[in-house]
Design goal:
The complex is a heterotetramer of chains A (280), B (98), C (641) and D (461).
Chain A lengths: L6 H28 L3 H21 L3 H26 L14 H22 L9 H5 L2 H11 L3 H22 L10 H10 L22 E2 L5 E2 L5 H6 L12 H30 L1
Antiparallel strand pairs in A: 1-2
Helix pairs in contact in A: 1-2, 2-3
Chain B lengths: L1 H21 L3 H26 L3 H31 L13
Helix pairs in contact in B: 1-2, 2-3
Chain C lengths: L1 H5 L6 E2 L8 H17 L7 H24 L8 E11 L2 E9 L1 H24 L6 H20 L3 H19 L6 H32 L4 H7 L5 H19 L6 H5 L5 H10 L2 H10 L1 H4 L3 H24 L3 H22 L1 H31 L17 H14 L6 H16 L1 H30 L16 H22 L3 H10 L13 H21 L11 H7 L4 H46 L7 H23 L1
Parallel strand pairs in C: 1-2
Antiparallel strand pairs in C: 2-3
Helix pairs in contact in C: 2-3, 2-5, 3-4, 3-5, 4-5, 4-11, 4-16, 4-20, 5-6, 6-7, 7-9, 9-12, 9-14, 11-16, 12-15, 12-16, 14-15, 14-19, 14-23, 15-16, 15-18, 15-19, 16-17, 16-18, 16-20, 16-21, 17-19, 17-20, 18-19, 18-20, 19-22
The chains are: A mainly alpha (280), B mainly alpha (98), C mainly alpha (641), D mainly alpha (461).
């Protein structure tokens, strides 16, 4: 493999990469717009983006390939995931279309658009691929890019930096919540706690119960349930606290109860028989 | 070979566009927009290689920067809308109509 | 033609010496008004003194200018004081110039002199009014505006003064604006004046259109070149303006209501300013009227009709001020008549105006003095026998009375007889009619003035229990005395020996014949005057005057109602105007609005259907964008392939 | 095989394939190995990483135990060396619990996503210089790229997916919170980390790890008191601020104490891997320790001269940097860092989340930016052949003055801002609320009614 690589082999290798990843990325893209779960969409988009990163690498753009991974897959898409989780973890979308004719029209427009584009590419006389050997020769790809950015495109570069700053500030302003009360200090919190009805910490979940899952309420000494032991967030998510205080499935609990009952009855019978024996 | 990339880019772009049209979740729509941007980036990189200059890569680089800025602001807007309307569906934000 | 070319009005030289300071004439009262109005309440304490001082200062300047003018030859007495170029639009230029000539200086002296006396009198008359300072501000403004009116050397500046007079009269008549009647009277005066102002403004526009200038010099200089119709139109429009300001028929109705203002205001309006403006305008524009006999004839008719109407109204009024107001109408009618006669009448018009200024001011201020003593009562039927308690007022009022009825030797006799004489001298049937009208008017004047005199000062006391008449303070009586002196001497001073005629000659041309002291009509006038007094004596001195007015016959009722002037206005102008308005509104709402609304409804209906495209769904918009993108790609391919 | 070659060709942007033999150093040395050598290197790295993890776990337990005055694991094998091996085997053999309600696909995918990128990162770490293996002269490094350091960043940002998705797919609040914390933390610290690299790139003139190591070989010579001395060649000295920032971000990226917020057991049970057990859990464990090793190795490479022997040794032994010896230096340096990780864990408490974010965004990033500005200015001036000493002096004086002024200002203004003791008025939630009330209005938190009742009672009383 060392030494000269034949142009034909090069072509074949690229074809293999292309066909595998092209199919994968189109499938992922289609999946992205068709699956219901937003997180799946994001993951499928990540697949597309990583495929594109590979394409960039093949197309002699190593810097862009890694920037694609870091910026798009790493930062942008992660931001998407973050927001998905903020605005609704299990956000699955109803796929029923509400606007009449939207889907059909979208399909028609999409097909027409892509058909026209491909038609255009098919008829266009594309020049023979030059390759970036010469462009990357002097110091490599990174240096070449840097040279262009800081000479020919320096104004655009500065403008984008201003844009980034503006965007960051804008996002901060948009996502900002104005504090309308001063933040309580630890001293204030402790004072409030001492003045409240309960000085001690809340009971942890699962105390005296069969198991200590966070949604399993603690049992008080008299056997009743302590509502305070389960975080209201969890209680709301689960639609109330555990209905079965022993932490078992209903049928298992019934079986368990039956066994216990049988054991008690048997023991009673045994005791009775012993007493009878003694009396005899 | 470069023509293949262009066709792939067109297909991905169209898929993104159709996704914008048929999905209601603002976040997914945003993802579709990102897909479209990515598709154009692919075309730029391919052209860059085709013509033997790095300008296409530079443009792709700028597209990424602008996309990052756009995502930051867009997601902040989605958050703000979600905070006040408890919904991230773009069809719910249809006050600006006849 | 020759007279016109010789008219020194057209060849005024630049002013020198004290005359170049003539702008102070206007500046003093204007500054007074500005200080008093802008200074507000902090000038309350000394505001009236400042007002008087400003008026007096203006008078002093006027006298100085007059004296300096006397030192110059007759043809050199017209001077122009150039202040600044006011309007410069294209070829149209209007300067803010002051024209100082015998005519304007006569008015200046009258206005500032009598005006100052009224100012002084007002100190006493208004001493109890909390807004005295404001009153003096308005008085100053009035004087300033009137001075601008008479000193202007072009119609545009004159118009400014004209409007300023209207504004000041509005403010002063409505001075007691808390009284609805006063407010209404002020509005009436303003609106009726608007009609006249409209005439004047159209006349000015016509002048500009015809001559390309509005300065006296250009207009009079080229008047003979304009068509007869244009000149007649200008003359008639000027007459309309004069009628408005001078309360001539048919625009007389505001004058009687204007009595709602404080009495010094009435004195100022009736004696020195405002109503004299119309006479001034006609005399000043004599070059135009002389070219249009038709316009002049109408001036005479208006004057004669007003003369009689005013006199008749004056006969029936029990309100002392209104009776005097009627007499003003009548006297101004004399002046207009004289001004309409032409060269022979100008001198008498102006002379009568000045004499009238003295005695009418005296009469009004006297009436004010009486009201001052009678708790502001104006009903003569509640007066009577005041000659004992108010001797000075009685004496001065009496001298004014004698002057106005034309008692031989007093001012009125000299000037009024001149007018009557001039009317007869005019010749022809119209001359006879006008002359006899003036004669009868003189008789009626004697009657109603005697009526006022007898009802007020003679007979038994008819005033109310709680009224304690008393003589007015010196600050009021001294102006009265001074005015009375003027009433006695002004006529003789002006007319005897054609002194005034010669003085005015540079402006209005020399009289063709010397004034005859005794004319064929002097006797007739005297007989009629005596008859009038006698009838009044029989009616109001021999018989007791009832405290409430008797029902009276039709003419009496008509006269009391100002000869149905208001009713006439209402039925002739107001009602048709209302109908016209309604018609216009109907037309507007049905035709114009209908058209507009139809277009709007069409557009609205169309957009109402189109707006359904605006669904509010972002995705719909995105779809259209996507289709658009596809279309563009398709179009590009079509072009390129 | 040709496909990988194409990829490598593209990534390396290697324009001439025939340079392999010609250049002993630099990027030209890569991409020429025979296939068995590549596979062999990869295998060695994999085994090395697994061993490192086992050793690191054992070492950590022993070191912490020693610091806490207890013996630690000492039963399994000599010094308990086999303890972590046994623990791993036991863990792998335990029952794999998949809770009800999880998103099964992602739940399975997440550990893989966490572990795989961690393994990849090590491929660009240079262990040593050129050695001869089986007759082939090859560098002790799987591969190198012109953008090699970016690969590490890319992989670390990919690794976060594992944590986030694990948190999400578990469908448990604690896991979700852990995942979200992880994503926010890693993204935040990655920025500062990337910025801390920039100065290194500026000085080395490359993003390739082997070239960075080579750039740290020799300092620039200068004359002092008649002697020819060399400036320190390691970037830890030259670029000390970058190094300090990197160490901070390294701790943040690794998600270990004091920055182990994603799995803070006191608050989130075990964070994103609360619901994981058995082999899946081990994958996270593996990922964490491999990350630690990767970060240490990267730090060694970027700041501590990589595999090169430290100065005193090179002074007395000229052959220290040749042959297989560099591996030793490299391991020593890397383990120093691993020890440092453990040491910090034993010494410091966990920070609060807002403190973490404040440190990342308000201290590390601005400091990095300022430092980069300074470094690039110096670099540019030096490239233009300016005399640096007066400039440095002026800048240093300026900084000192600035600091003094800020200290004095703080004193003065601090006194002026002394609280006057008057309680702040109760803010009106609806103030300025047009057209919508502020987003933080009490009724959003269900507190509005209670508060309203209280105030109503208070007014009645």
């Amino acid at each position: 493999m060392s030494g000269v690589v034949a142009a034909g082999a090069h072509q074949t290798g690229e074809s293999v990469i292309f066909w595998v990843l092209a199919v994968a990325s189109v499938a992922a893209a289609l999946g992205m717009i068709l699956v219901r779960k937003v997180v799946y969409s994001a993951l499928l988009l990540a697949v597309v983006m990583l495929s594109l990163a590979v394409f960039y690498a093949v197309n002699e753009a190593p810097f862009l390939a890694f920037v694609q991974v870091i910026v798009y897959t790493g930062a942008v898409l992660m931001l998407f995931l973050f927001v998905v989780m903020v605005v609704g973890v299990s956000s699955t979308e109803s796929m029923v279309e509400t606007i009449r004719g939207q889907r059909v029209a979208a399909a028609v427009a999409g097909i027409a658009f892509v058909a026209l584009l491909i038609l255009g590419f098919g008829h266009a006389t594309l020049p023979a691929t030059t390759g970036l050997k010469d462009a990357n020769a002097a110091g490599g790809n990174v240096l070449g890019l840097a040279r262009l950015i800081f000479t020919k495109y320096v104004f655009a570069f500065e403008v984008t930096s201003a844009l980034l700053i503006t965007a960051a500030l804008g996002a901060m302003v948009l996502a900002h919540r104005e504090r309308i009360t001063p933040k309580p200090t630890q001293r204030q919190l402790s004072e409030a706690r001492i003045r409240s009805d309960r000085v001690s910490p809340l009971p942890p979940p699962g105390t005296y119960a069969r198991h200590n899952a966070v949604d399993m309420p603690a049992l008080l000494p008299d056997g009743t349930v302590s509502e305070l032991s389960v975080s209201p967030v969890i209680a709301r998510r689960r639609g109330g606290t555990h209905e079965d205080l022993h932490g078992e499935l209903p049928e298992v609990a019934a079986k368990h109860e039956a066994t216990t009952l049988r054991a008690v009855v048997e023991r009673q019978v045994e005791v009775d028989s012993k007493v009878e024996e003694k009396e005899k | 070979m470069t023509g293949h990339y262009l066709v792939l880019s067109a297909i991905l772009f169209t898929i993104g566009g159709v996704g914008v049209l048929i999905r209601r979740n603002a976040i997914v729509i945003f993802m579709c927009v990102e897909l479209m941007l990515n598709a154009t980036n692919l075309a730029f990189v391919s052209f860059s290689r085709m013509h033997g200059t790095l300008d296409g890569q530079i443009i792709a680089f700028f597209v990424m920067v602008v996309a990052a800025a756009e995502v930051v602001v867009g997601l902040a807007i989605i958050m703000a809308i979600f905070r006040s309307r408890k919904s991230s569906s773009v069809d719910d934000a249809n006050l600006l109509k006849y | 033609m020759t007279t016109l070319l010789a008219d020194p009005q057209l060849h005024a030289q630049a002013a020198q010496g004290v005359q170049s300071a003539a702008w102070l004439l206007i500046a003093f009262p204007l500054a007074g008004a500005a200080i008093l109005l802008l200074g507000g309440r902090r000038t309350d304490k000394w505001g009236h003194l400042l007002g008087v001082a400003m008026s007096l200062a203006s008078f002093v300047v006027g006298v100085a200018v007059f004296v300096s003018m006397l030192g110059q030859p007759g043809t050199g007495r017209s001077r122009v004081v150039h202040l600044y170029q006011w309007v410069s639009v294209g070829s149209f230029k209007a300067d803010m110039n002051l024209l100082i000539d015998p005519l304007s200086i006569s008015f200046v002296l009258l206005i500032t002199g009598v005006g100052s006396l009224i100012h002084i009198y007002s100190i006493g008359y208004m001493s109890h009014d909390p807004d005295r300072r404001r009153f003096f501000a308005y008085l100053n403004l009035f004087v300033a505006a009137m001075l601008l009116l008479v000193l202007a050397d072009n119609y545009l500046s004159l118009y400014v003064g004209w409007e300023g007079v209207g504004l000041a009269s509005y403010l002063l008549i409505g001075f007691w604006q808390h009284k609805p009647s006063a407010a209404a009277a002020a509005k009436k005066a303003f609106i009726v004046n608007r009609v006249g102002d409209f005439g004047l403004s159209v006349a000015i526009m016509l002048m500009f259109a015809t001559f390309g200038s509005v300065s006296f010099q250009d207009v009079f200089g080229h008047a003979s070149q304009a068509s007869h119709g244009t000149i007649t139109a200008i003359g008639l429009l000027l007459l309309l303006g004069a009628c408005g300001k001078s309360a001539q028929l048919p625009l007389q109705s505001w004058l009687l209501d204007a009595m709602e203002g404080p009495t010094p205001v009435s004195a100022l309006i009736h004696a020195a300013t405002m109503v004299t403006a119309g006479v001034y305008l006609v005399v000043r524009s004599h070059a135009i009227f002389e070219l249009s006999p038709e316009a002049r004839l109408l001036v005479m008719i208006v004057g004669a009709a007003t003369l009689i109407a005013g006199a008749i109204i004056g006969c029936a009024k029990d309100d002392i001020k209104k009776a005097l107001a009627g007499s003003t109408m009548s006297q101004i009618g004399y002046m207009m008549l004289a001004a309409g006669i032409g060269k022979a009448g100008y001198v008498f018009a102006i002379a009568h105006l000045i004499a009238h200024g003295f005695f009418k001011a005296g009469l009004f201020l006297g009436a004010g003095s009486i009201m001052h003593g009678m708790n502001d009562d104006v009903d003569m039927r509640k007066f009577g026998g005041l000659r004992k308690v108010m001797p000075i007022t009685f004496a001065t009022f009496g001298l004014g009375y004698l002057a106005i009825i034309g008692f031989p030797g007093l001012s009125g006799w000299w000037t009024k007889d001149g007018i009557i004489d001039a009317a007869f001298e005019k010749g022809g049937t119209s001359g006879q009619i006008l002359g006899w009208t003036a004669l009868i008017g003189a008789g009626i004047t004697a009657y109603y003035m005697s009526r006022v005199m007898f009802m007020t000062f003679f007979g038994e006391r008819r005033w109310d229990e709680d009224v304690h008449p008393h003589e007015s303070p010196q600050v009021m009586t001294i102006p009265l005395i001074l005015l009375a002196l003027g009433s006695i001497a002004a006529g003789a001073f002006l007319i005897a020996g054609d002194r005034f005629a010669n003085f005015l000659a540079p402006v209005i041309g020399a009289p063709q014949v010397a004034h005859k002291l005794i004319t064929p009509y002097t006797g007739v006038v005297f007989v009629l005057m005596v008859a009038g007094v006698a009838i009044a004596y029989v009616q109001y001195l021999r018989r007791p005057v009832p405290r409430t007015a008797p029902a009276g016959s039709f003419p009496v009722v008509a006269a009391r109602k100002d000869l149905y002037g208001d009713a006439l206005n209402e039925s002739l102008l107001m009602r048709p105007g209302q109908w016209l308005t309604r018609l216009t509104v109907y037309f507007d709402s049905r035709t114009v609005d209908g058209l507009v609304n139809g277009v709007a409804a069409f557009v609205g209906g169309t957009s109402g259907r189109v707006r359904r495209l605006q669904t509010g769904y972002v995705r719909s918009y995105a779809l259209s964008m996507f289709f658009g993108a596809a279309l563009i790609v398709g179009a590009l391919l079509l072009v390129r392939l | 095989m040709s496909a990988t070659h194409v990829l490598a060709n593209g990534l390396l942007a290697a324009s001439h394939t025939d340079t392999c033999a010609g250049k002993p150093y630099g990027l030209g040395a890569f991409g020429c190995d025979p296939w068995w050598l590549v596979i062999g290197k990869a295998l060695v790295i994999f085994v090395f990483l697994l061993l490192t993890v086992l050793m690191a776990v054992w070492a950590e337990r022993r070191i912490i135990a020693r610091m806490q005055l207890r013996p630690g694991p000492n039963r399994a094998g000599p010094f308990g060396l086999l303890q972590s091996l046994f623990d791993g085997m036991k863990g792998a053999l335990k029952e794999d619990v998949v809770p009800r309600g999880v998103d099964k696909i992602v739940f399975f995918l997440a550990p893989v996503l966490a572990a795989a990128p961690a393994l990849v990162s090590f491929s660009i770490i240079p262990f040593g210089g050129i050695v001869s293996i089986g007759g082939h002269k090859t560098p002790l490094q799987l591969t190198d790229l012109p953008v090699a350091v970016l690969l590490v960043l890319a992989m670390s940002s990919m690794g976060v997916y594992g944590f986030v998705l694990a948190g999400w797919s578990s469908m448990s609040p604690y896991s979700l919170l852990g995942g979200m914390r992880s994503s926010a933390q890693v993204i935040s610290y990655e920025i500062a980390m990337g910025l801390s690299f920039v100065a290194v790139f500026l000085f080395a003139g490359s993003l390739s790890t082997s070239e960075i190591v080579n750039a740290q070989a020799h300092g620039s010579a200068f004359h002092f008191l008649g002697m020819t001395l060399h400036t320190p060649s390691w970037y830890v000295v030259l670029l000390l601020p970058s190094f300090v920032i990197y160490v901070f971000t390294m701790m943040g990226e690794s998600g270990r104490i004091p920055f182990d917020l994603p799995e803070g057991e006191g608050e989130l049970v075990a964070g994103y891997h609360t619901e994981y057990s058995s082999l899946k859990f081990l994958m996270f464990y593996l990922a964490e320790y491999i990350n630690m090793a990767t970060l240490s190795a990267l730090c060694t490479t970027l700041f501590l001269g990589g595999y090169r022997a430290p100065w005193p040794i090179t002074g007395v032994w000229s052959g220290a940097n040749s042959g297989w010896w560099p591996v030793l230096w490299f391991l020593i340096k890397m383990w120093m860092f691993i020890f440092f990780f453990v040491w910090v864990r034993a010494s410091l408490p966990r920070v609060r989340y807002d403190q973490l974010m404040k440190l990342g965004w308000k201290v590390l990033i601005p400091a990095s930016l300022g430092w980069i500005l300074f470094v690039s200015t110096v670099r540019a001036l030096r490239n233009e052949k300016h005399d640096m000493r007066p400039v440095m002096l002026v800048v240093a004086a300026l900084i000192v003055i600035l600091l003094l002024v800020s200290v004095i200002w703080e004193r003065v203004s601090g006194k002026a801002e002394a609280p006057d003791g008057t309680p702040e008025p109760e803010p009106d939630p609806m103030a300025g609320g047009f057209p919508v009330p502020p987003l933080d209005a009490p009724h959003y938190h269900g507190a509005g009614t209670a508060r309203a009742n209280n105030s109503a009672e208070a007014t009645r009383a």
